[in-house]
Batch of 3 targets.
Target 1
Amino acid sequence: MGIFWDISQCLRSYQTFFFSLAAFPGVLVLSWYPPGLADDNGEPAEDLVPAVLDAVAFHIQPYRGRNDQTVHDNIKYIIDRYGDHGAFYKFTTGTGKSLPLFYIYDSYLTPPESWSEFLTPTGSHSVRSSAYDSIFIALIVEERHKHDILAGGFDGMYTYFASNGFSFGSSHQNWKAIKAFCDGNNLLFIPSVGPGYIDTSIRPWNNHNTRNRVNGRYYETALQAALNIRPEIVTITSFNEWHEGTQIERAMPKKTVTRVYLDYQPHGPNHYLELTRRWAEEFNKEKEQWLM
């Protein structure tokens, strides 16, 4: 469980705290750019991977020039560099294979016929049945993307966005149908949940997508919606993406001359970590029953 969007110094200081408090078998999903192509927020993830390598998967970002061939090369680079580390996350498939898992953000920017050259067994630079074979998860935003994801050779889809109703994929009411489509086509469906959403500090026009936390009820409603469809994996958006108001990390009341930061009062600073632990425990209990 868990998506980290921008990587910064706080990740170093909070990773131990997060896992000791949340206390569940989670995976850090790091936003990753190739060396030299990191965004302007925080340090390049490449420099921080050794510092946070406890249980790690990678969230491949839409850097300039990204296509099926460059992602092929990225996967090779990541597996060559980190694949032998004990904390490099691998997902066990229904057939018993243990494979790395990668999330491809904004996967729809590349057409499915290009992805298929990389992700289907007959593709011109396929990784299937090679040392670099992995579980590749695409982003579903619009309904039509589910067909493109299937045609492209992906292994599943995730929804990412924390704002219920923002997109087809992020709308809780659509998850049952998406899960049925995935089950019928041997794909993973990974719903993404968040504690709330507010990005008006950077997108003043986007107030209609704000989702109030309601003291944790929004988060718990999303988590329940996810558990209702019995997924293999649930991701959380996010640990520390403050500029979109989706963080679950420890938060203290703070205000500056220009801004008042949202906090978790009347609850304590650890409220969302505590909720995460509780729901992770519930998820694991229910999952055991599903598999009986």
Target 2
Amino acid sequence: MSGWWHDADSDGIQDHLDNCPTLRETYNKFQDDDGCPDFIADNKLTADTDGDGIVDYLDLCPTQPETFNGFLDGDG
């Protein structure tokens, strides 16, 4: 069965599941498996005001830390 697995950027995430099929996912502390680079390790100016590991621009509650209570919603 050929062609069922295609991963153009070789990041381990199949293109049909990859939000950025031509840019490699960066595997760092901020792991989200969306297939896009996270730039957090490279950008010291990326703010995470509440320190929950979800950067402010993705965090729905940037001043209130995620509780990580078993309900993995990742909304901050």
Target 3
Amino acid sequence: MAKKIFSIPLNPMMDENYFNDIFIPFLNEYKDWIYDIYFTCRIEPFLQDAMGVPISEYDRNQVFENAMVIQEQSDIRVSATFNNVSVSPKYDNYKLFVENLKPLYDVGLRSATIPHGHWIAMGFKNHFPEMEIKNTILRKVATAQDYVSHAEQGFDYINLDRILMRDYDELANIKRAQKYFEDKHGRFVKIALLTNEGCLGRCPLMDEHFSYNNLKEENEVTYFHHEISKISCQYKWEKEDPAFFFKVATIPPFKKEYDELLKYVQIFKMHGRENLRVLEDTIYLVKCYANGNKILTEDLNINLDGVPHTELINWRKHIKRCKFQCWDCNYCDVIAQFKQKNAKN
């Protein structure tokens, strides 16, 4: 039976052919599996966000119009993303945002990611009573208490910190907290987990990466096109660390892992809002999962070739509770050594 478990990104960079020939047919065929479609939305005071994608004023309007057309034609809810935590939560910004969001609400927007708990606690939903409010992943909800605190502020849907994909014990605590909150307040607050971002688990530079994008001027390049990024990610760690693939905050691409995580979360947030290649991976994964495939990626042989089956099974089991504490564990390095050794033979 189909479940609406995937939150899918709308990439503003896709061209008309991709949009009409690939993306829309995918949505129509797999709509019973899609919870919503989240998209970049730029209105004052949020004219930049953590992804840093440059979008002209014309394109901002076009992205919103495309999203509303998708919602109307597919009957899949769309969700506006405002995740710039560097924008001050001061009251003037709150009033400005409410004023600028009202026209979008009036034409049918019913879901949004809001970066400031202050605004939600101040009565944001009084202005938008039918709006589903999500928190931003950048606020790093990583414990059951974090979840309860956000739910008490008034969020309807809580994105967990990506690191929890390797902390099943805390996921179980958060699941208990979800029931506790529902029993106490009569409100079921959904839990979502980002699945396939591909960033290093507990990346030491992630906050600075997002801060750069949040604060950059319109004429400045995004983080990965700036010289400061050359000491991170694909420019350094991915090249120098043979175990990089095994250490990233991406759920192992097996249906079994996704099914296990559904014991704790209701929604998988899929990546690809600023990267078409990742969006293609997302589309492929959703199709595979919906069709009951055990393997949810085309790249399994590339990334796991040479790893003995027994070792792979042990690794998949071990990382469910490793918490990305790599200093105290070398399991991913051991797996990478198997891959390197067998690749040479």
